[in-house]
Amino acid sequence: MTLTPKASRPHMPGYELLPADQGKGLKPWSYAVERLTHARGYWISTTCPDGRPHSVPIWGLWLRDHFAFSTGAQSKKARNLRANPHVVIGVEPSDDSIVLEGEARLEDDAACKREFLESYRAKYGWVSDSEPMYLVRPILAFYFSSDDFTGGATRWVF
Predict the structure, then answer these.
(1) Which one, of 145, 27, 23, lies nearest residue 95 by Cα?
(2) Contacts of 56 (CB under 8 A, 6+ apart)
(3) For a FRET experiment, which of 14, 40, 74, 77 has its CA 20 to 30 Å from that of 107?
(4) CA distance to 6, 15, 28, 41, 152, per residue, from 90 (Å)
(5) What is the pLDDT of residues 25-59, one digit of tens each?
(6) Residue 59's Cα: distance from chain center in Å?
(7) How far lies 5's CA from each of 41, 64, 86, 132, in Å?
(8) Which residues contact 40 (CB under 8 A, 6 or more apart)?
């Protein structure tokens, strides 16, 4: 399955974003997939049970139209995700930003986990196959650039 989200300008009152057909226009989803695939570093934000945010750097992969990552079963991320599966994933660097909002779920499919471990090892040269693996299903995604913020900002809705 290949995702085909609808692109538009983000709704950001007060930021004077240009209409979608002005400036650099809307970015294609393929640009976001390229960034999600080839970035080395990411940020994940989860919500603590008391409502406080928790944001930390992670490694991950774009896999099967999802953002995939692993973390220790007792990590703060994993504990937060058990209480609330909603996450935000940010792709580094911040001057060419992709932000993905979605829901994380534990992945138990053996073939998917094997694909994840092989790809993770190839990308990072290291893997722990004993830790839980999560897939983040995108709900919304955004693109922002310091080069043309008002004329290039893009929102994708899935």
Answers:
(1) 145
(2) 43, 44, 76, 77
(3) 40
(4) 20, 21, 18, 9, 17
(5) 999 999 999 999 999 999 999 999 999 999 999 99
(6) 11
(7) 24, 15, 19, 28
(8) 59, 92, 123
